Amino acid sequence: MQIPTARWQQLLSSAISDPAELIRLLELPVELVESARRAAEQFPLRVPMPFIERMRKGDLQDPLLKQVLPLDAELQPVPGFVTDPLAEMQNNPHDGLIHKYRGRVLLITTSACAINCRYCFRRHFPYQENRLGPDQWQRILDYIAADDSIHEVLFSGGDPLAAPDGRIARMLNELAAIAHLRRVRFHSRLPVVIPQRITDQLIAALTGTRLKPILVLHANHANEIDAVLSEALQPLRQARVPVLNQAVLLKGVNDSVEALKTLSETLFDAGVLPYYLFVLDPVAGSAHFDVSDDQARKLFDQLQRQLPGYLVPKLAREIPGEPSKTLLI
Ligand code: SF4
Fold it and tell me: Which residue from 12, 69, 111, 117 has its CB within 8 A of the most atoms of ligand 1, so it is best to mutate?
């Protein structure tokens, strides 16, 4: 019997990838098309309709648009901005597996993302060399089983929730057979950009083994969290799946106290706790999003003065070779 395509899969496969189409839908100047196409040749445009529907028409300063619109500025080389800013390829014991920190490993579950964020630190990642076929998966299971210091598996990508629910359930069942594992963590932007991704089947998969699941979302601006997303997250709360958020501090998107404060408060209203606020990883093509460390610290200081502690995310950066994230304050 053929399994019907879920609504989220339809929205995923119909994501907009032609800059001219995005510019037309948002009633933006057609002169932008040429430069957007040039930049998209290096890192394609990809943005699903439910996310576009949260953007303001005719507004080039829209904070959601800025995260996805390819720009000429991406093509200018900037010293210090490189293709593998976190040196992940040096911590890649097997295809599809990154082991940087003690106690946890990260799976490159899929190469697919629902959205291509222009600042993404993996925009140059060699996904083709990190495909998780059956052989690689078995090698990864063996690697985790052989190291009893590993207690947590992080599903990353690409976006791990781009994988079908059945595949996620199978992977979790196989991981649950490894006695020293305790937790599984999914880092995903997919529910933010396509809230329909939170299905009953997904929740059943996440909660269907003895492993404690955690979902870490990625939203950078309060406008990303609308009523549809808040409602979609409710069943996760009912299933007692902790939901956290990590954001990236981005010039022109959320580099103001007001934007960061509203983000934290809106997340909390939707049942999501702010977890990390990362400064930008210096990936080639993203320098125009950079906020200086001084400015980041000033913003954070003001945020701390205006919000209760549980609404203040940790301000951090990832430094290659360090045993954990490095706090800026
Ligand atoms: S969803 Fe995450 S992995 Fe995918 S492009 Fe955006 S930041 Fe990168």
Answer: 117
Please, is 13 exposed, middle or buried when counting C-beta atoms within 10 Å of its C-beta (0-12, 13-18, 19+)? exposed
Residues whose CB falls within 8 Å of the CB of residue 38, separated by 6 or more in sequence, listed in order: 70, 72, 75
Tell me, in angstroms, the distance from the centre of ligand 1 to residue 110's CA.
11
- Determine contact, residues 70/43, Cβ cutoff 8 Å: yes
CB atoms within 10 A of CB 126: 15
Residue 260 C-alpha from the chain's centroid: 18
Give whole-number Cα distances, 252 to 71, 104, 163, 291, in Å.
14, 34, 32, 9
316 ligand 1 Cβ < 6 A = no
Residues of the chain with pLDDT under 50: none
Phi/psi at 313 (nearest 5 deg)? -70, 160
Beta strands in 44-109 (DSSP E): 97-98, 104-108
pLDDT tens sequence across 166-193: 999 999 999 999 999 999 999 999 999 9
Tens of pLDDT, residue by residue over 190-218, are 999 999 999 999 999 999 999 999 999 99
Q: Which residues contact 79 (CB under 8 A, 6 or more apart)?
A: none
- Mutation pick for ligand 1 pocket among 17, 88, 122 (CB with most ligand atoms within 8 Å): 122
Residue 1: per-residue pLDDT: 56
